[in-house]
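User: Predict the structure for this protein chain, please.
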Amino acid sequence: MRHCSVQVRGLLTRDELDRYNALMEVGSYLESQTRYDLAYTVQKEVDLLIQPAIERLKDKGRARDKATQEYLEAKAQAAAEEDEE
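Assistant: Here is the predicted structure, written as structure tokens:
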């Protein structure tokens, strides 16, 4: 079973995290029983479960990029005003 990243796991809600942990446990058990056909199905469920958290991570990245851009623009404007004086 493939785990999601720590960043994504940190953005899962409590219910999503509980379900994620349960699915990973079931998937690990199936793999230990060499039932890879069923473990594949469980992995697909995990992939669907983490999609909202991945979107939340992307949104955080976009917000960070926007804040950085605004900061750089303000800094450039302040430097331009300082050069005018």
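The chain has a mean pLDDT of 94.
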